[in-house]
Specification:
The structure holds two protein chains of two kinds. By secondary structure, chain A is of the alpha+beta class. Helix content of chain A is about 70%, strand content about 10%. Chain A folds into two domains: about 190 residues, no CATH class; about 100 residues, Alpha-Beta Plaits (2-Layer Sandwich), CATH 3.30.70.3040. Chain B is an alpha/beta fold. Helix content of chain B is about 35%, strand content about 25%. Chain B is globular and about 50 Å long. The chains are: A alpha+beta, B alpha/beta.
């Protein structure tokens, strides 16, 4: 207990003796953590969109209004015999209306003029493999009952290449952020060691162990990470609902982010955990490099 | 208690030999003056004893431990058994006399309640109980050195090393410090004091070791 109090006391001294430096470090680490969080969130969201699209029926066939249920059922039965096809679902006009209502339940203005009559019936067709999609789609090109065929492979391909680019760019960005963070923590710890060189010298001479001297300097980094993670998470959790309501306009069917109450714990938990571990390791390495104990 | 066994020290880059085949034995309870001109190697010899420096060759024994080959993790323990005071005192200027000594006690893991008891006891021993709330810069140089001695005694060392402790003091303060070190020696602590003040050594009782040109030239 005495040791913990001592470490906290010395850490407090380090921070207060270099108060502007401490403030600046927390600001910089907060910005770096925010950027890291942003990259993580964009990666997770794009992964979720991809997974959603890959799990959707990859070919959707919309029928003309005059097509009867029997005719659609007949087409469905024939498709189900095809070995390229995994499954076929028939979405009636009423079911399409229910889906539409569910997707836009918070937007009454969009529901006002829509009735089951104006929505087309459709077949959602899942292929056994992605490469079968174009063949399945071709079957309906000249079909007299078909209004439109939506074929999602191009979208998935495009999104995959976009996601790869985001990951690559994000990875490079993350690498740069890590290097900057390492540099900052090394400067802070070295500066604190220089500021407290006399205390350190006396500690060594009266027989302090190396960890006795090291702990407060490592705890400096941990405390900076804790403050920065809290600030960065607070900003992110405040901003995300706005982003979420914006993205809902485009992709309401995909749950891009976890529920808000979990989000706070997740963002703060991961940022703090990774931040604290990272700064502790770098601070330890800095003390090994610069602290002659 | 302390044994230097054919200790040599040389610096490869400059080719300078600081010590050559120095052998010396110091017994428990001795009061030893280490004298020699500036740059003779008195400080280096003391630094060997707290493993601040290591010789190029030879062994240095403290009780059953060879200091030269002591593992790093055991150095703090060694330094708690061998206290040291310096010519420049090495006090923390922004801390009071009480806090300067408490600092050393905290390092060795004393509880706050123990610190409150031990600091006044140590200050009483060096005659500074009435100055415990003063800052170092408010003290005379002699008083500052006494605080440094009290701090060195905080770990209850068996040996006290004093590196030119009177170098910055006038004759009156010098006498007070030497008297205090003699008193500490009478309480049972082995004292090794490095000085270049031969006049001081002549008027004080104690064993004398002379270092000149990297060799022990005289022991009396």
């Amino acid at each position: 207990m005495n040791q913990i109090i001592r470490v906290i006391k010395y850490t407090f001294q380090h921070i207060t003796r270099n108060v502007w430096q401490s403030f600046l470090i927390i600001m910089i680490l907060t910005v770096l953590m925010l950027m890291g969080q942003l990259f993580a969130i964009v990666s997770i969201a794009s992964d979720r969109i991809l997974t959603y699209l890959e799990n959707q029926p990859q070919v959707t066939v919309f029928f003309k209004d005059e097509t009867t249920s029997d005719q659609i059922e007949q087409i469905k039965r024939e498709l189900e015999k095809d070995s390229l096809i995994e499954s076929v679902s028939y979405i009636t006009k009423e079911q399409a209306y229910e889906i539409y209502k569910a997707q836009h339940k918070n937007e009454p203005e969009l529901l006002e003029f829509v009735t089951p009559d104006i929505l087309p019936a459709s077949l959602d067709i899942s292929a056994r493999q992605v490469e079968y999609l174009s063949n399945i789609a071709k079957q309906f090109q000249n079909n007299e009952f078909v209004e439109r065929v939506i074929f999602q492979q191009d979208l998935v391909d495009e999104l995959t290449s976009w996601t790869d680019a985001v990951r690559f760019g994000g990875g490079v960005l993350l690498g740069v952020l890590l290097l900057i963070s390492i540099g900052i923590i090394l400067i802070v710890v070295t500066n604190n060691i220089n500021t407290f060189s006399r205390e350190i010298e006396i500690m060594r001479l009266v027989g302090a162990g190396s960890w006795y001297i090291r702990w407060p300097f490592i705890f400096d980094g941990v405390l900076f990470a804790l403050f920065s993670a809290t600030y960065a998470s607070a900003i992110m959790v405040w901003v995300l609902p706005y982003v979420q309501s914006f993205t809902d306009h485009f992709i309401a069917t995909v749950e891009l982010f976890p529920p808000h109450e979990n989000l706070i714990h997740l963002v703060w938990g991961y940022t703090t955990g990774i931040g604290v571990l990272f700064t502790a390791v770098v601070s330890y390495l800095a003390t090994r490099q610069h602290l002659k104990v | 208690m302390i044994k230097f066994d054919s200790v040599s020290k040389w610096y490869k880059r400059s080719g300078v030999t600081a010590f050559e085949e120095v052998s010396l034995q110091i017994n428990q309870g001795d009061f030893v003056f280490l004298i020699g001109p500036s740059g003779a190697g008195k400080t280096t010899l003391l630094k060997f004893l707290i493993r601040e420096d290591i010789p190029s060759e030879g062994d240095i024994w403290f009780k059953d431990d060879n200091i030269v080959r002591l593992p790093r993790r055991k150095i703090p323990h060694l330094r708690r058994q061998i206290g040291m005071v310096f010519q420049d005192f090495k006090l923390l200027r922004q801390q009071t006399v009480f806090e300067n000594i408490a600092f050393a006690l905290e390092v060795v893991g004393k509880k706050p309640s123990e610190v409150k008891e031990i600091v006044p006891y140590l200050l009483d021993r060096v005659g500074l109980l009435h100055r415990e709330r003063a800052f170092p810069q408010e003290l005379s140089t002699g008083e500052q050195q006494r605080v440094a001695i009290a701090r060195a005694l905080a770990t209850e060392p068996e040996v006290l090393l004093a590196d030119e402790p009177t170098g910055n003091l006038d004759s009156q303060n010098t006498k007070q410090i030497v008297d205090l070190l003699k008193q500490i020696n009478e309480w049972g602590t082995t004292v090794i004091m490095a000085t270049h003040d031969e006049a001081l050594v002549k008027r004080t009782k104690g064993r004398v070791v002379v270092i000149k040109d990297g060799r022990l030239t005289e022991q009396r």
